[in-house]
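By way of example, what follows is a protein record of this kind.
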Amino acid sequence: MDAPQKLAFIVQSNRLQGLMWQALLKSQKLAVILEPAKGDLADCINQIASAGLTLPDVIVLDAEAAELNPYEFCRWCRATFPSMQIFLTRCRQLHISDTERRWAKQQGATDFLCGFDRDTLMSGATDNVKRILTSLDYPFLNEKALLTVLLNIRRQLGTTQAAVAPASRPERTKGAGLSLANVQTLPESSASPDGQPVAPDPLNDVDWVTAGLRALSNGRVRKAAKESFAPPPPAVKSSALPKPLPADEKLADGTAVRRYRGVVY
């Protein structure tokens, strides 16, 4: 008899990071639910437990979420639901020191993982997934499924970078590489920063993010192109135009006078 499917909650303030976590864990046959990074996460868990529903086996929680205290949540989970595993993540600062990792574990976290970075996507994502599966006592890593998802994400990110580059070129942070946290140009709201409406895909797949960034890029390109053209000259009424001189003039005795470039002959 197969073991019951594990359930993971993904709580990330960066939309793209959350969608990548979702795709990677789904490739390993985990059931994944995306949750907003709000301060009522503990209340949400309490309501699930009160309703007798299945609690998540693992929560991948953004330690940089502005609206909740991740360490306080870890302490609460350890006291209330000790079997629930919490993996803290961080994507704006790639390196996590041993001191930070020890402190997170002392607060009740299972581990502290780096977020996904464009330059180390393959190795970083593989290491993160392995850590979670090992903690959940999963029998093996489905490398083929994981590699398929990683190549697809890498290809889509490359396409998005090529589309966004002409419109805006973000500066690379020294020593940090080009972090995927920088792709926060597309918020969760239904409008992009320049006012163009962007409709989110309810299926929550990575195509929505890349398509939204391409739409944003195209809008900026169109705006830049429009502003680069000089305005047309103002229209001139026909009555204001100089009237053409008659081709021939005649003197009083009827002799024709011809002019060519101001010369009379």
